[in-house]
Amino acid sequence: MGVVLDGYCRDIHRVREQGFAVWARGTHPADSCGRLDAVVAARPVACGGVRVEQGDYLLADEDGVVVIPSDLAEDVIAKAEAESAVEDEVRADFRSGRSIAETYEKFGAM
Asked: Within a 10 A sphere around the Cβ of 61, how many other Cβ atoms?
């Protein structure tokens, strides 16, 4: 459970320490009192210019947030798993001492 904000948030680290995931554009010292109103729930929204609908998948980490429309999830997950497998092989090549140029030539990716 968590929240993605197309805005700023206060105390992100403390909120995360409580077990609630939060991603925001950044931090700001002001609280939300008098500045934020929940007006609807379970309705499509635009966040960062991306349409998000109920049932969509949101994946988030330190690098950012990705929205996967529910009707594309199976295909996107399969492609992501294939890409992850290639990245694992690239890392293994680096660990074995292969150069960046050799690795790029072998995989066509870094």
From this structure: 8
pTM: predicted TM-score of the whole model, two decimal places: 0.73
72-96: pLDDT as tens digits: 999 999 999 999 999 999 999 989 9
CA distance 65 to 67: 7
CATH 3.50.30.40 fits 1-68, yes or no: yes
Question: Can you read off the two tokens belonging to residue 84?
Answer: 């992850």
3-state helix, strand, coil in the chain (%, to 5): 35, 25, 40
Give 54's pLDDT tier (boundaries 50, 70, 90). Answer: very high
Q: Which residue has the tokens 């996107």?
A: 76
- Mention every residue, 6+ apart, whose C-beta is less than 8 A from residue 44: 51, 52, 53, 54
Helix axes 73-95, 100-107, angle to 10 degrees: 140
Assess contact for 18 and 28: CB atoms under 8 A. no
